[in-house]
Design brief:
- Helix content is 3%, strand content 54%.
- The strands form 9 sheets. It has a 22-stranded antiparallel barrel. It has a 6-stranded mixed sheet with strand order 1-4-10-11-8-9. A 3-stranded antiparallel sheet has the order 5-6-7, with no helix packed on it.
- Strand 25 and strand 26 form a beta hairpin.
- It is mainly beta.
């Protein structure tokens, strides 16, 4: 295997050639990431050779041009699509198993829909899925920003690589992001015909098929396509009707065309489509407080003795009390609605024109249409305490232009860009309580415009300075469409229900413009050691409260949040290129931090006050022998509130509380070995560990929503034939069968229960593939 094997096999127009010299790394820097890059080595795919043992060179495009990862002074974890497959990572949800200080959870914000993701990097992110809440970590598919939570947990259909960037991003990305970025880069059409089919069977009645092809159509036109079909049952059994929560029936497809009419002009057109159906995201009830308002109403007014006085009868199924607490999280007793749907259509057109050897113009045009539905029985009992249904429709369009150039004998690299984004959507939330049924939510019409630029200059052969600036202006508009649907307690004027307006049907709007800088200083001490320091600023937009009850004269708003980030890091390669170690330390100063809290029965976003986050990351990759690869990472995040507003303190969030869903320690370790049998081909056993320390699932740190420290163990054994045409892999995930809480909701005062999202238990699978 060549030590210069690259994760990226095609050159980018106007890109500098990858290298380790400082004049190679001085191209524009992405926002502020910290220090650590992880090379995930590809396993040996051929018989042993006499070539020297060395780690492969990883090439990334995080700074909008191809560069050696080890010469890029930003904090980034990069991994190729094949390496993700070998780790059985089939969707964006599994990416937190390979990158320290990255947390990804599923079905958040009481959505009932498994495609609604919550992403956190270094303690910065956002849980809620609503249209009025921006994500704290940006997900980008082929350069196009995925604006909302629904659909952000997507299948990896035909991926070239993924890059995880830490810290505020904005001076190179079209859409700014405060916590970091996850950039997904799809495979481009190849110049020779290839095709692959793959089938998987496994536990929970898993049946999956995948087919891909790529190749030329003419001298100037090539195409690629991929289709993924999957069916599997859920992992939480609903004992009341025999169904399971977490059922998945999905089809995902992607097609792309590349047209190169001239050597200096290229166009890439890509279309992706996803259609998913199933039951609601797996969850269960972990605490019941029968003295809360809604249980008291049910037990007293609707049932009476023996349910009252509390605790009432623990054997009478008509009573809502602690008898319903799940002792086995994989057995659920709900009877309310359970279903989810997702349909996504996306299209992008990327163009590049190399005007001269040192000047390139690029265009990124993107459109996405997302339709989703989610329903859930929030209390997970046969008794009605809370049922929810969400309908969701969203369209977005974005246009980005970039001009990239070099100068001063390649000592200067620069980029300037302009960006426009617009979105329209409607998200209606239907909530049924024993005392009232309401429809909350409404529609949004938002736009975002930005101008950004960055330049990197080699002051000397070893010292480089990078600086960037971004100006952003945006307007958010919200039209609430919220009414009372039913009124069992007759609390509203006679004849006014259904249709009583919870908030006036009047559009609210707010605008903001911000300028955010970044500066980076990098020094290469030797050809094998580089250090760097970065300062950057970022912000995340404000919005409007979407869930309102009792009635108000106008929807309350929450303000933007801001961070100032400081970081320093290093990247090191051993002299024999068999060991790589990258590390970083960071400090983030937060102001107007947005926190998910509960006010009455309303889950909403509020500005908590100030906070600070500090931590570190270490990542390594080693090749002790030609066939053995060891890689791993360690992340530490210490987040604390420095001040809290009185309104947030009133919700039970205090300065000593932990941030929601943020463990202090994260880590991963992987070991793979290539075994070459006498009859040819190669066996590849692999073991992966993923660790998280304890974390609370909500900002109030409800004890029932505390997840203790745990380690997930995954393993696989694969075989690939001598010619690489066919292979098979036997794999297992969560082999120690850890029961894990991945999210949660609690209202112990009014609704009287706490609900926990339940992670996947032990699974196994067998995959066969054939490559042409």
């Amino acid at each position: 295997m060549s030590p210069e094997h690259r994760l990226i096999a095609r050159p980018a127009l106007g890109a500098a050639e990858p290298g380790l010299g400082l004049h190679r790394i001085a191209s524009p820097l992405i926002g502020v990431s910290l220090a650590c890059g992880l090379l995930q080595a590809s396993p040996v795919r051929a018989e042993p050779t006499a070539e020297p043992i060395a780690l492969e060179t990883v090439v990334v495009t995080a700074r909008k041009r191809e560069e050696n990862l080890q010469g890029t002074p930003i904090s980034i974890t990069a991994m190729g699509g094949e390496s993700l497959k070998e780790r059985q990572i089939t969707s964006t949800q599994g990416l937190d198993q390979i990158a320290p200080n990255l947390i990804i959870s599923q079905g958040q914000g009481v959505s009932g829909n498994s495609s609604a993701g919550a992403f956190f990097i270094r303690g910065v992110g956002q849980i809620d899925f609503l249209l009025n809440t921006d994500p704290g970590v940006g997900v980008y598919l082929d350069g196009v920003y995925v604006a909302r939570s629904f659909g952000s947990l997507m299948d990896i259909v035909d991926l070239e690589r993924v890059e995880v960037l830490r810290g505020p991003q904005g001076t190179l990305f079209g859409r700014n992001t405060i916590g970091g970025a996850i950039s997904l880069v799809s495979k481009a059409p190849s110049n020779s015909f290839t095709a692959e089919v793959e089938g998987t069977v496994g536990s929970f009645d898993r049946h999956e098929a995948r087919a891909t092809f790529s190749g030329p159509i003419s001298d100037t036109l090539s195409a690629t396509g991929a289709v993924l079909w999957r069916e599997r049952t859920g992992w939480v059994k609903r004992v009341t009707d025999g169904s399971t929560l977490g059922d998945d029936r999905s089809v995902s497809a992607r097609g792309a065309l590349r047209w190169t009419p001239r050597d200096d002009v290229r166009f890439d057109l890509a279309i992706d489509y996803t259609d998913e159906k199933g039951t609601s995201a797996p969850a269960n009830v972990v605490q019941v407080v029968e003295t809360a308002s809604f249980p008291s109403f049910h037990n007293g007014a609707l049932v009476g003795p023996p349910c009252v006085p509390p605790p009432g009868s623990l054997s009478n199924p008509a009573c809502f009390n602690s008898q319903w607490v799940a002792h086995d999280l994989y057995r659920e007793q709900g009877a309310g609605p359970s279903g989810q749907k997702l349909r996504v259509f996306g299209a992008s057109l990327n163009g590049a024109w190399e005007l001269s050897p040192g000047l390139t113009v690029k265009s990124i045009t993107g459109y996405r249409d997302t339709r989703a539905f989610g329903s859930r029985d929030g209390d997970h009992t046969p008794i009605l305490i809370q049922n929810t249904v969400d309908t969701y429709a969203h369209q977005q369009f974005s246009q980005e232009f970039q001009v990239l150039g070099t100068g001063l004998d390649r000592r200067l690299n620069w980029i300037v860009g302009a960006y426009y984004f617009t979105e329209q959507g409607e998200n209606l939330n239907f909530v049924t309580f024993p005392v009232v049924a309401i429809r909350s939510g409404g529609s949004v019409d938002n736009d975002n415009t930005a101008i950004f630029g960055q330049a990197a200059f080699d002051i000397t052969e070893r010292l480089s300075l990078t600086a960037g600036l971004r100006w952003t202006a945006e307007t958010k508009r919200f039209l609430p469409d919220q009414i009372v649907l039913s009124d069992p307690t007759h609390a509203f004027p006679p004849g006014s229900v259904p249709g009583f307006r919870i908030v006036p049907f009047v559009r609210s709007s707010r605008s903001i413009s911000e300028t955010t800088p970044m500066v980076n200083l990098a020094y290469r001490w030797t050809d094998r050691l580089m250090t760097y320091a970065t300062y950057s600023e970022g912000f995340k937009s404000g919005g409007f409260t979407q869930r309102i009850f009792p009635p108000l004269p106008a929807p309350p708003a929450f303000a933007p949040e801001f961070v100032a980030s400081y970081e320093t890091g290093f990247k090191f390669d051993s002299a024999d290129h068999r060991f790589r170690l990258n590390g970083a330390a960071y400090y983030t100063d937060y102001s107007d931090l947005q926190v998910p809290v509960l006010v009455g029965v309303q889950p909403l976003t509020a500005n908590a006050g100030g906070a600070e986050i500090q931590g570190l990351e270490l990542e390594f990759d080693a090749a002790p022998t030609a066939d053995l690869r060891i890689n791993g990472g360690l992340g530490y995040t210490h987040a604390r509130y420095t001040s809290l507003d009185a309104a947030v303190l009133a919700t039970g969030v205090t300065r000593d509380k932990a941030f929601a869903q943020i463990p202090e320690w994260t880590g991963n370790l992987g070991v793979s070995y290539a075994i070459h049998p006498g009859f040819g081909g190669v066996f590849r056993p692999r073991i992966d560990l993923s660790y998280r320390s304890e974390a609370f699932m909500n900002a109030a740190n409800t004890p029932a929503l505390r997840q203790g420290a745990y380690t997930l163990l995954n393993a696989s054994v694969g075989y690939e034939s001598r010619d690489g045409r066919w292979g098979a892999t036997l794999f297992g995930q969560n082999l120690t069968d850890e029961t894990v809480i991945t999210g949660g909701f609690a209202d112990l005062t009014d609704q009287g229960y706490a609900e926990a999202s339940v992670g996947r238990p032990r699974e196994w699978g067998l995959t066969f593939k054939y490559r042409y």
